Structures are given as C-alpha cells and as structure tokens.
Amino acid sequence: MRLLASSLTCVRGGREVFSGLSFELAAGQLLAVTGRNGSGKTSLLRLIAGLLPQAAGSLALEGGDAELTLGEQAHYLGHRDALKPALSVLENLTFWRDFLGGEAFDAPESLAAVGLTHAAHLPAAYLSAGQRRRLSLARLLTVRRPVWLLDEPTNALDTSGQDMVAGLMREHLARGGLIVAATHAPLGLAARELRIGGAP
Amino acid sequence: MTALAALIRRDIRIALRVGGGALIGVLFFLTVVVLMPFAVGPDLALLTRLGPAILWLGALLASLLTLDRLFMADHEDGSLDLIVMGRVPLELACAGKALAHWLAAGLPLVVATPVLGLLLNLDLLATAAVALTLLAGTPALTFTGMIGAALAVTLHRGGLLLAVLVLPLSIPVLIFGVAASEAAIAGPLSFGAPFSILCALSLVSFVVGPFAAAASLRHGLD
Fold first, then answer.
1. pLDDT of A129-183, one tens digit each?
2. Largest CA distance in chain A
3. B19 at the A interface (CB within 8 A)?
4. Residue B124 burial (CB count, 10 A)
5. Chain centre to alpha carbon of residue B194
6. In chain A, whose CA is at the least distance from the CA of B75?
7. For residue A7, which of A46, A64, A47 has the smallest C-alpha distance?
8. Contact assignment for A84 to B18 by CB distance below 8 Å
9. How far is CA B200 from the centre of its chain?
C-alpha cells in the first residue's frame, strides 16, 4: 500500500496556503510534516482527509480499497477531540466504534491501551485536556484504518502519554499502516520529513 | 445501518441529558401557550378561534429554538469532520440527525398539545385535530430547518441567520397546518385537502432537506 501525492495545491479563502507539494509514502512509513505556525500543516492533513478541496494536484492510495475514498480509509485526529461532554468516556468511544464501523479492538481494551480504564464511566466533561487526547487516540484503536492522519498527536500529553503515542504509532506501522503526522515536537520514531513553507 | 442507528441513538441521548435542549423546546412551547390566555383575555370564544394558530406558532418557534445546535455542536467539537469523512453517506447522516432531533424535540411538542389545548378552550376533537396536524407537520419544520442549520454552521452566532433563512420556508407548513386544524373544527372546507398538502410538504422536505443540507455542509467545511 502506498500513498502518492503529486503537486498538491491548497487554496483557502482566495489565498494559496501551499503549492506543488509532492510526497510518496509506503506501508510502514511515517511522514512527519513540519513547518512554521500557519504554514499549512493542518490544511495538508485536512486535504488528504477530503475535508478541504484540492485546488490542483493528485492524491491516491495505491493498493487500498478501490470502492472507498481516501478519507473513508483514514483516521483523522484533529485539534478538536470530537467528544461529547454529556456522554461518558465509554459511550463516546462506543459511538465512534459503531459509527465508523469497526471492531478491531474492544472498546474497554482500547481504553486500557490508552490508560483510561479507571475513567470509563465518567462523563467526558470531567476529563482533563490530556485525558481527552487519550480518549480520542483510543478511537484509532477500536476501528482499524490503514492511514492515520494525526495533527499534533502529542499535544497536551505528559511524558508517559508521549511514549504511549510513540508505541501506538510503532504498532500501527508494524502492521503495515501509514501515518502522516503534523508535529513540532520529535515523535520518537524514525520518520521521513516533509517541510512546508521553507526554512523558518 | 448500525452506524446510522448509533448516530441517532447518540443524538437522542445527548438531547435528553442535562443541557441537551430537548426539554427547552417543550418548556418554551408551554410558556408561549400559557401566556396567551393572559394576553388575549378571558374571552373563551376568541381563544377557541385562535387556539390552533397559537399552538402552531408556539410549535414553530419552539422547533426553531433548538435547531441551530443541530450541526453547530458537532462542528464545534470536531465530530462533524469525522461524520463527513465516515462511510455513511452524508445525506443519510443528515437525515438521521434530523430524525433524532425530531424525536427528541418535535415529538414532545405533539405530546404536550392535548394538555395545552385545555388552556385554550379547545374541545377533544379540536385538540386531536391540532395534535394530528402537528404530528404530520413538525417533521417538515425540522427537515427544512436543517437546511438553514447546515448553512449557518460555520458562522458564529448563526442562530439569528437561521431564523431568517428558515422562517420563509416554514410559512407553507404553517398555513396548511392551521388551515387543516380549523377545517376540522369549524369547516366549511374538508379536513382532507389541507391535511394532504401538509403531508405532501413533509414528504418533500424528507427528500430535499438531507440533500440540500449535505451539499451545504460539504461546501461550508473549510
């Protein structure tokens, strides 16, 4: 499985965010997207996810399911955690498991993997920023998708949380998955780097 | 199918929990209708004549009140991105969300109508007629209102815009809803004709609403 992007251009609100961006990512590889604030890291991830229109260029997942779009085969972990404060931790996770249609991992097992078992029945409103992040990471485990698009995955996490993210990413890559991660901090894994917007 | 059912279940569950908004609509409906006899005065004949119109207006405003949260809440916490990306077609997801909204916020209005009919001096037949027209007509309010909710989703404080966008679309529903109720109470028109048009409006909105909402959501996400 390979993710091929050639001369991608993103235009938002009449302004060109980036243009002529090309990269190639094979199964088991991690692409670390770096760049200044506002250089278009998030825009690139959203463009791959299909949440932003492509102004030019092409994007394809070779060896993926031909019936599905790239976005439908990808997990997107954005700045916002996609959690409902009124629902409990477990309810939030089971909803996404059912909606995204997968059962790679049982919901309680995924919670254990991100270290949230003790909070399973707590309303999500009571979680701290780091715990919210852990809960949205659990979503990536309950449903199996070959492509992970991670926007600052280690945001708000403590040191053990950052190690946990590195571990989860390593496992995903070992299973033959692909990861595109926008990041400022080093992820603790061997990664190819894609720099947007030139030197800082 | 499980995905769609999960979405509907989640939305209903959130609406019924504290701060969810299902009760807010019913309480607003109750307030508007209860205040009306105090404003109009103790003229029972007048109240009976105005009754269906008051109930319909109350229901219309109550359903508008919570509609702006339909997509806004999901947009704010990022869930909408995942719903757009998901394997469930967006049109179907929109229809599911509207159905959940109607079950949690529209159906209670219909259930509350018999109680409020007493306050407006409506007899049993008149109350039943109004409740029946509300049952047939409120889905149209939700499904057309959904288009406005989808258009206003990326705007902060889009609630007012929503009202301006949606009210013109809901005028036909209001006209035929009140006409059918009054035909059942006083005649001389038959109940069937305006009621059939009301049902037709609902059916059209079931088809048009999800497609229009999905198109504007896709366009608006940026």
1. 889 999 999 888 888 888 999 998 888 888 888 888 888 899 899 988 899 999 8
2. 48
3. yes
4. 9
5. 19
6. A82
7. A47
8. no
9. 16
In angstroms, rounded to a whole number, what is the distance separating the alpha carbons of residues B51 and B184?
13
Q: Where are the domains of chain B?
A: 2-220
Q: Cα B157–A11–A133 angle (5° rounding)?
A: 60
Amino acid sitting at position B85:
M
B40-78 residue pLDDT tens: 888 888 888 888 889 999 999 888 888 888 888 888 888
Residue B30 burial (C-beta neighbours within 10 Å; 0-12, 13-18, 19+): middle
Q: Specify the pTM.
A: 0.89
Q: Does B89 lie at the interface with A, CB-CB under 8 angstroms? A: no
Single-letter amino acid, residue B9 = R
ipTM of this complex prediction, to 2 decimal places: 0.88
Distances (CA, A) of B19 to A86, A121, B16, B112, B126: 8, 19, 8, 20, 34
pLDDT single digits (tens) A106-133: 778 888 888 888 888 888 889 898 899 9
Q: Residue B12: name the closest of B141, B104, B94 by CA.
A: B104
Which two tokens mark B92? 């179907």
Which residue does chain A place closest to B82, by CA atoms?
A: A76
Of A50, A76, A84, the CB nearest to B77: A84
